[in-house]
Design goal:
The chain is an all-alpha fold. It contains 15 helices and no strands. Pfam families: BPD_transp_1 (PF00528).
Length: about 290
């Protein structure tokens, strides 16, 4: 048999294998299972969105699962004006953004010292950060409440910013230390040969190389801080300082809140976090892909 005949026969033998892969029932079963899980996740959001633009009379007549006869925006407008939602939105955005930036910076500094600097007792430091990250907020609330009273930060956004910066950076330090412990020593040696000090090596070499991981941390820190409810409920008692989750939780027991207004409040409460996640989805994908390639 000639070489040409062997080359021509090879694709023919590969075609049944590819067809068998496409006809594999396991692949279709996994796909159907994922579609069912997607519907289970999206269905409540769709119900909330439908009822948010439905009039109270339409809701009372046709129930929560029916499509609205016409778009009714008064529920969203009334909720926005009733709770001064623009102020709540700014409080949540400002708090989440500052916490995400500060927590990433603190995590970088800690992880650089523990992962690359290899300070003495690094294992005990990592255990400390791990335990601090695992502590429930209910255990921390009283001492934090007492300290915030003593330093005059109670009922201030900065109290929440400081608390969540420490909490989030504990997780960030633990994660980044494992990444920096495996950092290529060739890059560090090259920077040292070029005369770069530790500070310059950190910001000119280590941070740019680990940017995908830092982007993932920044996104998670922002969303986690945005969704926090318990500690902001305790520390932010003034109406002007409340965040979005606190405003939504406080109004759930309001007798003036009908079902459509409640749906409107839930919709505009989760939309900012969803938009932020969609905007930074590419950053998350790049970070996960970089970790997989490594």
């Amino acid at each position: 048999m000639t070489v040409t005949a062997v080359k021509n026969a090879a694709p023919a033998s590969e075609e049944p294998v590819k067809a068998a892969k496409h006809r594999n029932p396991l692949r279709f079963g996994v796909l159907i299972g994922l579609l069912v899980l997607l519907l289970l996740v999206v269905a409540p959001l769709l119900v909330v969105a439908i009822n948010a633009v439905k009039s109270p009379s339409d809701y009372a007549s046709n129930g929560p699962l029916s499509l609205p006869g016409h778009l009714y925006w008064d529920g969203i407008v009334n909720f926005w004006n009733r709770v001064n939602f623009g102020q709540k939105l700014w409080n949540s955005f400002f708090t989440s953004l500052v916490v995400a930036v500060l927590a990433v910076v603190v995590s970088i500094l800690n992880a650089y010292a523990l992962g690359i600097g290899r300070v003495k007792g690094r294992i005990w430091f990592l255990v400390f950060f791990l335990v601090a990250n695992l502590l429930p907020q209910e255990v921390l609330v009283y001492p934090l409440y007492y300290l915030s009273k003593q330093v005059g930060l109670y009922d201030s956004l900065w109290s929440i910013i400081i608390i969540f910066t420490v909490i989030q950076s504990a997780f960030g330090t633990y994660l980044l230390t494992s990444v920096y412990a495996e950092f290529p020593t060739e890059l560090l040696d090259a920077a040292s040969v070029d005369g770069a000090g530790k500070w310059r090596t950190l910001w000119r070499v280590v941070v740019p190389v680990s940017r995908p991981t830092l982007g993932v941390l920044f996104t998670f820190f922002f969303i986690w801080t945005w969704n926090e409810f318990f500690l902001p409920l305790v520390f932010l008692i003034s109406n002007d300082n409340q965040t979005v989750p606190v405003a939504l939780g406080v109004l759930q027991g309001d007798r003036l809140m009908d079902a459509t207004t409640t749906s409107a409040s839930a919709l505009i409460g989760i939309l900012p976090a969803m938009l932020f996640f969609v905007i930074f989805q590419r950053t998350l994908t790049r970070g996960i892909t970089a970790g997989a390639i490594k």
